[in-house]
Amino acid sequence: MNSPPVSELTANAHARRDQGEHDVFVRRLNALYPLQPHESKALETLVDASYAVLPHHDILHEQQPSKEALVLLEGLACHYKVLDSARRQMTGFVLPGDFCDFGFLSSSATRQGVMALGPTLVGRIDLRQLSAVGDKMPNILLAAMRAASVDQACARELVISLGARDALQRLAHFLCEMYHRLRIVGLVGAGAQFELAMTQAELGEALGLSTVHINRTIQQLRKQKLITMSQGLVTILDAAGREAAASFDPRYLRPN
After folding, report:
1. In terms of domains, do 151 and 172 share one?
2. Number of separate domains in the chain
3. To bridge 39 with a disulfide, which of 3, 35, 92, 219 should be the other Cys (CB 3.0-4.6 Å)?
4. What is the pLDDT of residues 94-115, one digit of tens each?
C-alpha cells in the first residue's frame, strides 16, 4: 500500500492536533506519576507544534543535539543502531505518549537514531518552556524521569530476550509489553486488540530471529489460541496464557 503524500499527512496532523490528540502524552505521564488537574493542563500546553513523519524515516538522527523534546503522539517508532557492517539493530520502541529520546534531561545528544515504523505524528516541546513549567511543577519532571527509567528497563528486557529467551518467549514477551504499554494510554480496543505497525521482517530484526522463524512462531501462538495477528492488528485471545508462555512480569513497566 502506498503512503499518502507528505502534504496530506501534514494536514491530517494539524487536524488531529486541533482535536487534542496530544492528550495521550498527558495520560502517559499521569500513569507514571499522578498529576493534579492544573499540572495535566500545563502538559497539554507544552506540546506547541506537531508534524508527520513517514514510515522508515528518521525522527531523530544519531548524535543530534537536544534542542527540543519530542513526543510521539501517534504511530510506532524504534531506537536503532547501525553497525559498521551496515546491519541495523533495534534497541527499543517508542509508543504514543512516550518521549522519543531523553537526551533533553541532561542536554545530551541523541545516542541512537529514532525511526518511524509506520505513519507517525510527533509533537515538539520547547525546552525553555519545559524548564519553566518544571520549576513551578516539579511533579512533571519527576514523571519524565520515571518515563526515562521505564525506557531503560524496556531496553534491558530486550537484551534479556535476545540473550536468554527462546523464539516463542521472545515474541510473546514483546507482545505482552506492547499490550501493557498501549493499554496504559487507552490504545487497546475492544476485544483486546491493538495496532502493531511492524512487518514480520522488522519483528525478526528486533528479536534476533529470521523472518521464517518469526512466521513459524506466530503460527505457534495462533495454534495455542493465545493471539491472532493480521494486517497490522494483534488480538489477545488468552492474556494469562500468553503471559505464562513469556514468563512476563509487568513490574518493570511501573517504576514507582
Report:
1. no
2. 2
3. 35
4. 999 999 999 999 999 999 999 9
